[in-house]
């Protein structure tokens, strides 16, 4: 039993308790703070200071102005430059995702040299000096053995491509080709041969637009994509012809599920109606402003709307109605030229039909029509190009097709030449920022070409499939780390502007810009004089005569040249042979090519075959799919097919199928949709990567390059990607 | 004057390019698989032939005037700021019970896998304080989203609300009075779910709260009765009481 | 001799005192009381949703004014709650036998005797002996042990509720730190509030009994001095008194 205890007075009790409380509160405050979950930063927390930097985007070719926000040396957000007229102050999903481009965990960090076999993936890290010495040595070696034209140069489609071009030219090779030969050269060819230049559509002020084989609401082109909607608010009608129900088709006023490859039939019939009903603008069309109208009049007699309906599937009465509607809206009306036209073997002729339709609408150099190139004023500094006595006469694929474009040529034809060794051998490949292993048809042929090459050097930001098969891989700096020369941009009626880049953050790891690389190589190869300048000096030469251009680009991110938008020609002759719009092209005739488009029915897939077509989405650019933010929208590509033929073949949505052509095969999941023509299948670009360095798309889905057979446009040599017929069978 | 931020959206110009979704995700470090905003779409009816269409509808938290999410939060961790009209989440007060996530008929909230508290659109409050527009509004190529203060008669949104016919996408049967307005032709309009309060919350409001009130009430009454009795009639003890001798 | 049941007794300090509570018990009682009250008041202030708070929005607002912000209020609630649980736990471990004894005492009820006691005392205290007689019951109350039935029931309630409050409180605390499912936190909050509410209802009676009821004044004083008058013990806790007497 406990002893009796003295009573505890109330006063003593209170004093003790308060003291205890005070001590514990004071001592416990830091403890208190650590106890309560404060791991979450709520809005009230102070942020690190943000600095803002102008630059222009490189996630696609549009070069939208952007403002990069930097905190603690890291780019945390990229916002649009609201003052950038060409992009109408916007930034698409890809521009926003550029933070995962620069901070891609798969980024190349330092120069690599192959140690195992090509494609084996065995690399050794080397220093820049070693890499440059070795590359210079190999290039000179090939130049010795096979002439300077023995190296193929791919300068990329980049603001520094002009330096790779310069390097190629002073090295002495004519064999410079590019990704453009997989894209828009047939369109360029067609318009050069009709209007004398490649025009820019003035969508904003147009009142009637036919979009055929283009998908501008997904394959974003600035300012066109945005301007379509402003134009529509002002009464513009949009007609879409596409075998696929793309987002452009989904938002159009009328969509026709045209049979693939029959666009020419539609346009010839359209012209037929325009000519027969005399809907053309007489003053603009005949005989003064065009060449060959009378020949054309006879030529299109047989291309009636009724005939066209049988070919393309679009009802004759719609063709007639559209012809009347579009001419009523002319000259603020157009057939949208589009961009990627690498589809059929008569791709140039198809675009010629479209260009001729535009000519009949008399919309060139007018509001709402097709615009001539606006003056920006950026100059290309002159440089001496040395002459190499032993060089061949011309580029290797010269003359293989009648309409090769200067400085572009045709990669596909060059590839064939490398494999055959005719007319002369090419044994080296200098590649910047281009991924033919993923984008060029018939990957096995690209691999065959690679087998014929003695040396491949590749500058890129990630280990693409093309880099994976190279001999030397050089880590390129991302656009956010680069200082770039001035580039001129055509913004349609929105603007004509010039942009440049200054580094937002310093070069990461050991990455370097192609300018520096070419400069270093040039020094080692005795060509140092051609690169003996700084970028600042170069820029000054570029903007010589443009007052305030550099300041404007620094202060606002862009320089605007308020140059003339319309009526640039003002009565002067066009840059065609005849000085007027050429419906009939004499050079074609002389070259043995149809001087006016002649319709050829595309080969029809047999009962078990499908035509494979390719296209674009708004969140990927070609094979630039290895981006963590963007693959959330598509983790692997699928094969789109109509449910009817699928049912006939016993295929179900989600089945793993093998799509096979004569070039190769690929495996991917099937996705059924009514939004595709019944004998057509579609798959997205940039998947099925062979390189583990493209970790997000490695072995996911299939690559178009493996399945596409190699066809090319017979006039420009542009790749033709929609000619492949495939079979589809279930695998699992 | 108090601000009331809202969005007026012209969904007819939305091309589903996903720019707004990526911009928001980068701005707020939204984890993979989760989104603070969205783009809904209709299903095409191909029997319409050349007039087949799809309509895209961008959206996000509607910062409702009668937010069921706020009503579902007992601790006030989520609240509507009276100065701006924005519904915020105070992560320091949140215990991660998830009531608010289920209570939202638009699915505008998600549970952050790392922070374990709800995350949602807050109209980019941080950007607003820097004088910038919300990320999704700023980036949109076709400028489908317009943002501003409804209480300011000169703002873009006020003008649009005055000059154009607008609709709101409402949950049925409870209208939470969303502050996201669509120009008349928006589709789809019937996608919001219903307001659902989780079982734990319904138990709290429907059972526990009344029970506690009753228990305290009875106890209080009893105590009051005892007190009054003591006051007026004095103590009464048991009959076993032994008197002091 | 005065008739039984009509006498008012007053227990003087000059009465002989017997020991009832030691310093440890006294400390833990007041510590417990302070914590419960603090936690109840702050807890009520944390239900800042007016539609749910049983007293409306004014109390949470007042609490936030006093503590500065909702986060600080929560911080204190958690700090005091965890401290309370820790101290109780340590106390139990340090005074293990006494704690077991306490639990044995409060969880031992003899249904017949204690039910009668509860009913009679409840009526007696609220309506009076007259009403009791009118209901047909006698005024003699069954004898009680160390704790009377009412105290036992209240103790059971606080033990039970306290345990659940700690468990649900810890679940809510850890919810945003390690739990991947929100459901435990949601239900914990509901149950936490239920237990706190019932506990509060019981607390009203306990505080009245302790601090206001004159009849129990010696018990209140014993929570400071540790002693009760012998007469009081004989009258109110006859069985315990007998035990004590038998021992000495």
Which superfamily, in CATH terms, is the homologous superfamily of the largest domain in chain C? Transmembrane di-heme cytochromes, Chain C
Strand content of chain C: under 5%
As residue ranges, the low-confidence spans of chain C are none
The CATH topology label of the largest domain in chain C is Fumarate Reductase Cytochrome B subunit
Separation of termini of chain B?
80 Å
Strand line-up in the sheet with most strands of chain B: 8-1-10-9
**Number of domain units of chain C:** 2
Uncertain stretches of chain B: 238-245
Q: Which radius of gyration of chain C do the C-alpha atoms yield?
A: 21 Å
How many β strands of chain C by DSSP?
A: 2
Class from helix and strand fractions of chain B = alpha+beta
Model description:
The complex is a heterotrimer of chains A (732), B (245) and C (248). With 732 residues, chain A is an alpha/beta fold. Chain A has four domains: 51-102, N-terminal domain of TfIIb (Single Sheet); 112-117 and 124-181 and 387-483 and 506-530, Rossmann fold; 185-374, Dimethylsulfoxide Reductase, domain 2 (3-Layer(aba) Sandwich), CATH 3.40.228.10; 609-730, Barwin-like endoglucanases, CATH 2.40.40.20. In chain A, 30% of the residues lie in helices and 17% in strands. Chain A is built from 24 helices and 28 strands. In chain A, the strands form eight sheets. In chain A, strands 5-4-16-15-14-6 form a six-stranded mixed β-sheet. In chain A, a hairpin with a 2-residue loop joins β2 and β3. The longest helix of chain A has 26 residues, at 10-35. Chain A is globular, with a radius of gyration of 30 Å. Chain B has 245 residues and is an alpha+beta fold. Chain B has two domains: 5-183, Alpha-Beta Plaits; 198-234. Helix content of chain B is 29%, strand content 15%. Chain B has seven helices and ten strands. Chain B has helices at residues 19-28, 68-71, 99-103, 125-129, 135-139, 156-163, 199-233, and strands spanning 5-9, 37-41, 56-60, 78-80, 87-89, 110-111, 118-119, 145-149, 166-167, 180-183. Chain B has a four-stranded mixed β-sheet, covered by helices on one side. A two-stranded antiparallel ribbon of chain B has the order 2-3. The termini of chain B are far apart. With 248 residues, chain C is mainly alpha-helical. Chain C folds into two domains: 20-94, no CATH class; 110-248, Fumarate Reductase Cytochrome B subunit (Up-down Bundle), CATH 1.20.950.20. In chain C, 72% of the residues lie in helices and 2% in strands. Chain C has a two-stranded antiparallel ribbon with strand order 1-2.
């Amino acid at each position: 039993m406990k002893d009796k205890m003295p009573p505890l007075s109330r006063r003593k009790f209170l004093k003790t308790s308060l003291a205890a409380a005070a001590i514990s509160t004071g001592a416990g405050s830091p403890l208190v703070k650590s106890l309560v979950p404060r791991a979450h930063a709520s809005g009230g927390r102070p942020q690190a200071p943000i600095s803002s930097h102008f630059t222009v985007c490189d996630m696609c070719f549009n070069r939208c102005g952007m403002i990069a926000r930097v905190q603690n040396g890291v780019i945390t957000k990229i916002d649009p430059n609201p003052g950038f007229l060409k992009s109408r102050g916007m930034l698409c999903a890809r521009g926003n995702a550029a933070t995962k481009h620069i901070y891609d965990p798969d980024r190349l960090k330092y120069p690599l040299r192959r140690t195992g076999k090509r494609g084996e993936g065995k690399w050794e890290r080397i220093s820049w000096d070693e890499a440059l010495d070795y590359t210079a040595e190999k290039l000179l070696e090939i130049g010795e053995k096979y002439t300077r034209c023995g190296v193929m140069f791919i300068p990329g489609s980049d603001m520094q491509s002009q330096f790779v071009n310069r390097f190629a030219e002073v090295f002495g090779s004519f064999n410079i080709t590019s990704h453009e030969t997989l894209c828009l050269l047939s369109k360029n060819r067609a318009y050069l041969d009709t209007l004398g230049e490649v025009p820019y559509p003035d969508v904003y002020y147009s009142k009637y637009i036919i979009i055929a084989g283009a998908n501008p609401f997904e394959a974003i082109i600035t300012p066109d994509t945005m301007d379509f909607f402003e134009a529509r608010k002002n009464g513009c009608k949009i007609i879409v012809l596409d075998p696929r129900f793309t987002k452009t088709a989904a938002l159009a006023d009328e969509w026709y599920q045209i049979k693939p490859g029959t666009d020419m039939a539609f346009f010839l019939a359209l012209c037929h109606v325009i000519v027969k009903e005399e809907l053309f603008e007489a003053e603009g069309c005949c005989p003064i402003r065009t060449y060959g109208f009378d020949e054309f009049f006879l030529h299109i007699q047989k291309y009636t709307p009724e005939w066209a309906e049988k070919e393309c599937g679009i009802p004759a009465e719609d063709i007639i109605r559209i012809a009347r509607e579009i001419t009523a809206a002319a000259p603020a009306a157009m057939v949208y030229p589009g961009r990627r036209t690498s589809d059929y073997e008569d791709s140039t002729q198809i675009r010629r039909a479209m260009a001729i339709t535009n000519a009949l609408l008399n919309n060139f150099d007018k509001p709402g029509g097709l615009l001539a190139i606006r003056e920006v004023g950026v100059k290309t500094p002159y440089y001496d190009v040395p002459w190499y006595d032993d060089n061949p006469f011309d580029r290797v694929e010269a003359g293989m097709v009648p309409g090769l474009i200067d400085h572009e040529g045709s990669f596909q034809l060059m590839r064939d030449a490398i494999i055959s060794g005719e007319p002369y051998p090419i044994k080296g490949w200098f590649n910047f920022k281009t991924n033919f292993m993923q984008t060029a048809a018939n990957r096995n042929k690209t691999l065959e070409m690679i087998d014929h090459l003695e040396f491949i050097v590749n500058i890129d930001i990630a280990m693409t499939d093309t880099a994976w098969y190279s001999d030397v891989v050089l880590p390129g700096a991302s656009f956010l780390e680069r200082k770039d020369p001035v580039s001129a941009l055509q913004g349609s009626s929105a603007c004509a502007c010039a942009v440049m880049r200054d580094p937002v953050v310093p070069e990461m790891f050991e990455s370097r810009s192609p300018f520096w690389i070419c400069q270093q190589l040039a020094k080692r190869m005795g060509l140092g004089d051609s690169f003996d300048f700084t970028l600042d000096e170069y820029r000054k030469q570029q903007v010589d005569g443009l007052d305030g251009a550099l300041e404007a680009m620094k202060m606002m991110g862009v320089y605007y040249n308020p140059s003339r938008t319309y009526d640039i020609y003002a009565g002067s002759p066009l840059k065609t042979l005849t000085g007027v719009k050429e419906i009939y092209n004499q050079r074609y005739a002389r070259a043995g090519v149809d001087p006016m488009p002649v319709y050829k029915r595309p080969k029809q897939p047999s009962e078990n075959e499908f035509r494979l077509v390719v296209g674009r989405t708004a969140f990927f650019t070609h094979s630039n799919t290895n981006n963590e933010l963007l693959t959330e929208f598509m983790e692997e590509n699928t094969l789109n097919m109509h449910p009817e033929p699928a049912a006939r073949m016993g295929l179900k949505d989600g089945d793993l199928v093998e799509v096979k052509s004569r070039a190769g095969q690929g495996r991917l999941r099937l996705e059924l949709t009514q939004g595709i023509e019944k004998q057509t299948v579609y798959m997205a670009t940039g998947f099925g990567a062979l390189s583990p360095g493209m970790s997000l798309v490695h072995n996911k889905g299939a690559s178009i390059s493996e399945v596409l057979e190699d066809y090319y446009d017979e006039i420009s040599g542009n790749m033709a990607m929609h000619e492949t017929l495939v079979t589809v069978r279930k695998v699992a | 004057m108090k601000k009331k931020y809202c969005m007026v959206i012209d969904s007819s110009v939305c091309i589903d390019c996903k720019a707004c979704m990526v911009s928001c995700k980068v701005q707020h470090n939204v984890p993979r698989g989760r989104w603070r905003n969205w783009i809904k779409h209709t299903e095409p009816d191909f029997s319409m032939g050349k007039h087949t269409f799809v309509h895209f509808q961008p959206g996000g938290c509607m910062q409702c005037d009668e937010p069921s999410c706020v009503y579902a939060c007992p601790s006030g961790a989520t609240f509507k700021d009276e100065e701006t009209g924005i519904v915020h989440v105070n992560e320091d007060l949140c215990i991660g019970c998830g009531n608010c996530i289920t209570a939202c008929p638009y699915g505008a909230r998600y549970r952050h896998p790392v922070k374990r508290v709800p995350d949602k659109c807050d109209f980019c409050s941080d950007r607003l304080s820097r004088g910038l527009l919300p990320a999704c509004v700023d980036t949109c190529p076709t400028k489908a989203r317009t943002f501003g203060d409804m209480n300011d008669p000169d703002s873009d949104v006020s003008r649009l609300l005055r000059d154009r016919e607008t609709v709101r996408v409402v949950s049925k049967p409870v209208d939470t009075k969303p502050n996201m307005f669509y120009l008349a032709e928006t589709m789809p309009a019937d996608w919001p779910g219903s307001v659902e309060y989780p079982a734990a919350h319904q138990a709290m409001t429907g059972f526990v709260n009344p029970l506690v009130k009753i228990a305290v009430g009875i106890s209080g009454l009893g105590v009051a009765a005892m007190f009054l009795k003591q006051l007026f009639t004095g103590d009464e003890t048991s009959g076993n009481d032994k008197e002091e001798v | 001799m005065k008739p039984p049941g009509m006498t008012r007794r007053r227990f003087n300090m000059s009465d002989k005192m017997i020991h009832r509570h030691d310093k440890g018990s006294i400390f833990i009682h007041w510590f417990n009381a302070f914590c419960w009250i603090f936690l109840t008041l702050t807890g009520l202030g944390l239900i800042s949703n007016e539609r749910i708070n049983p007293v409306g929005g004014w109390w949470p607002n007042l609490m936030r004014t006093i503590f500065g912000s909702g986060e600080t209020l929560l911080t204190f609630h958690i700090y005091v709650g965890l401290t309370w649980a820790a101290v109780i736990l340590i106390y139990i471990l340090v005074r293990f036998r006494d704690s077991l004894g306490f639990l044995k005492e409060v969880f031992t009820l003899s249904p017949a005797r204690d039910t009668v006691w509860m009913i009679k005392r409840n009526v007696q205290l609220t309506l009076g002996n007259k009403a009791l007689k009118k209901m047909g019951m006698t005024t003699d109350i069954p004898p009680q042990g160390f704790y009377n039935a009412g105290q036992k029931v209240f103790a059971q309630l606080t033990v039970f509720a306290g345990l659940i409050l700690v468990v649900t409180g810890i679940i809510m605390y850890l919810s945003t730190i390690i739990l991947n499912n929100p459901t435990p936190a949601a239900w914990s909050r509901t149950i936490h509030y239920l237990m706190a509410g019932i506990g509060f209802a019981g607390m009203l009676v306990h505080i009245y009994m302790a601090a206001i009821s004159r009849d129990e004044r010696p018990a209140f004083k014993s929570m400071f001095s540790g002693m009760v008058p012998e007469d009081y013990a004989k009258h109110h806790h006859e069985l315990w008194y007998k035990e004590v007497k038998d021992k000495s």
